[in-house]
Design goal:
Layout lengths: L14 H8 L11 E2 L27 E7 L4 E8 L4 E8 L6 E3 L24 E10 L3 E14 L2 E16 L12 E4 L7 H6 L6 H7 L7 E5 L7 E8 L12 E4 L2 E3 L5 E2 L4 E4 L1 E4 L2 E3 L7 E5 L6 E3 L1 H11 L4 E3 L2 E4 L9 E7 L13 E7 L4 E4 L2 E8 L6 E2 L1 H4 L2 E6 L4 E6 L3
Parallel strand pairs: 4-9, 5-8, 18-26, 19-25
Antiparallel strand pairs: 1-13, 2-3, 2-11, 3-4, 3-7, 6-7, 7-8, 10-11, 10-27, 12-28, 13-14, 15-18, 16-17, 16-22, 19-26, 20-21, 21-25, 22-23, 24-25, 27-28
The structure holds 2-acetamido-2-deoxy-beta-D-glucopyranose (8 copies).
The site of one 2-acetamido-2-deoxy-beta-D-glucopyranose has 5 residues, from loops.
């Protein structure tokens, strides 16, 4: 028996709230020190050099299937860590940047419910780094330390990869009540939002970036197709180094990743944020507050479309005026499952992509209202959730209608509707 679908925020790197609390001047969560990229700061994008010998292993498939646990709306990726390799099931999270597994002392009592644990003394390739930290997500806090070890993802093996080992956890990275337990997190965010970056302003290459830097994948990108499982089953895929255009219903178009400005003026890429210019429901424009921008985090580790309360209320007013708010979610009549008015989030087209596309393009993410509604037994709920402590997030219940390409050299995000 499948559990009813639970709309629940799961993962958002604490990094941002840390930076936000340092930036005391910020009074409203909608006034972000994020900036649209200008050409003068684009030099920051080339922080590691292109390896000319790429694509030597072109024939090795970069495709890794994802497990969607339908009951939870989480997407998981299987990896193995250490020598001999030990298998783990991790939340695929483009919203955070550390990849972690639970250590042998992280028992259920210490907050790690699964029985798959990593014992450093049992891995001959384990390297301790003496960097101990606390990392946070919207729904969980973890304590642990960085280490280096071998990790295998799909057909690729990376030795001496920088990883995180968790010793205890409060809260939960996912709803862990189903038969499938998730062990940790696969951080596919940008390095700027890692725990190391937040604590020491230091950087490292995430797993997709290492795959490229070591010449194992041909392109500096990964693409994600989430899909929706009919039962708890493998659904969706991530492809490292390539895009499966066959999955897309139209040409993939690109938008720019926004830069973040630290309180001291330092401008950098924090994570997969892009600034939307407009939200529309049918022919209604939703007015954001004046002088605010809408930085959306493209986050496979969060379920809902997360918006600040004032904006969410305005959107819902247009989308389903008779919706009944229950704390952070909106209940709607199930007749909305037949509503085909379009809901759109519009982004300015990329100025920085190396893919040929018109310079004054708008990239529109459009889904019919019925795709914004989810059934919970006999009642229905919007996939919109409010959170005033977080940036707006495009979570997987919305993203699964699209193919998403994450390019970490151009710092662009490619989007196209997924084939039905
Ligand atoms: C890669 O695949 C192509 C065609 O699919 C084939 O011609 C070529 O020999 C393969 N290369 C290697 C190194 O296996
Ligand atoms: C790579 O992975 C795919 C699917 O995960 C598998 O079918 C294939 O045999 C693997 N090996 C190579 C060399 O591509
Ligand atoms: C661990 O990995 C990081 C990042 O790749 C690297 O800088 C560091 O030198 C490695 N540490 C050891 C002890 O090998
Ligand atoms: C992590 O460690 C700090 C300091 O020892 C402690 O205050 C905090 O409660 C710990 N967090 C968790 C999740 O156990
Ligand atoms: C982080 O390091 C860079 C140099 O790599 C420096 O320019 C910047 O000011 C530092 N950021 C902060 C917030 O200290
Ligand atoms: C470039 O890729 C080759 C082949 O994969 C690898 O042997 C080499 O170490 C890489 N060079 C750099 C600078 O990363
Ligand atoms: C793109 O959208 C903006 C509003 O967000 C509008 O002013 C502009 O005309 C649009 N451009 C095109 C080419 O449609
Ligand atoms: C409101 O939300 C709470 C907590 O999620 C839930 O227990 C309750 O049943 C909901 N009420 C309605 C009317 O949906």
């Amino acid at each position: 028996m499948l559990k009813p679908l639970v709309i629940k925020l799961s993962i958002l790197s604490l990094g941002l709230s840390c930076l936000l609390s340092q930036a005391q001047a910020l009074s409203s969560p909608l006034k972000f020190p994020l900036s649209r990229r200008t050409h003068s700061t684009n030099t920051l994008t080339k922080r590691w050099s292109k390896n000319k010998s790429h694509a030597t292993q072109k024939n090795v498939s970069g495709l890794v299937p994802l497990l969607e646990n339908k009951a939870l709306q989480e997407y998981a990726i299987s990896v193995s860590v250490g020598t001999p390799p030990k298998e783990f099931l991790l939340v695929l999270d483009t919203g955070s940047s550390d990849t972690w597994v639970p250590s042998s002392i992280c028992t259920p009592k210490a907050g790690c419910p699964s029985d798959r644990r990593f014992n450093p003394s049992e891995s001959s390739t384990y390297v301790h780094t003496r960097l101990d930290y606390q990392a946070g997500y919207l729904t969980a806090q973890v304590n642990g330390s960085y280490f280096n070890d071998t990790i295998t993802v799909g057909n690729f093996t990376l030795d001496n990869q920088f990883l995180f080992l968790v010793n205890d956890q409060t809260g939960s990275l996912a709803d862990q009540t189903s038969d499938i337990l998730l062990d940790g997190v696969f951080g596919a965010g940008l390095p700027g939002s890692s725990t190391l970056s937040n604590n020491r302003n230091e950087t490292f290459l995430t797993i997709p970036m290492e795959l490229y830097a070591r010449g194992l994948i041909p392109e500096p990108l990964f693409s994600v197709f989430l899909g929706q499982a009919k039962e708890s089953a493998w659904s969706g895929e991530i492809i490292f180094g390539a895009v499966d255009q066959e999955r897309a219903a139209s040409r993939i178009t690109y938008i720019d990743v926004a830069q973040f400005q630290a309180p001291n003026g330092y401008v950098y890429f924090n994570n997969w944020f892009s600034l939307a210019s407009q939200i529309e429901v049918g022919s209604n424009y939703i007015e954001a507050e004046e002088d605010t921008s809408l930085p959306f985090l493209f986050d496979t580790g969060t379920d809902a479309l997360v918006l600040p309360t004032d904006l969410a209320d305005k959107v819902v007013q247009s989308l389903a005026p008779d919706a009944i708010k229950n704390d952070t979610v909106y209940n709607v009549d199930c007749s909305y499952l037949g509503n085909t008015r379009p809901f759109r989030i519009i982004f300015p087209g990329s100025q920085f992509t190396t893919v040929k596309q018109s310079k004054n393009l708008n990239v529109t993410l459009e889904v019919p209202v019925n795709k914004m509604v989810t059934r919970l037994g006999s009642t229905c709920q919007l996939i919109i959730e409010t959170n005033d402590d977080s940036y707006p997030i495009i979570g997987n219940l919305f993203l699964r209608h699209f193919i998403t390409v994450f390019n970490f050299e151009d710092y662009t995000i490619g989007l196209a509707p997924a084939k039905q």
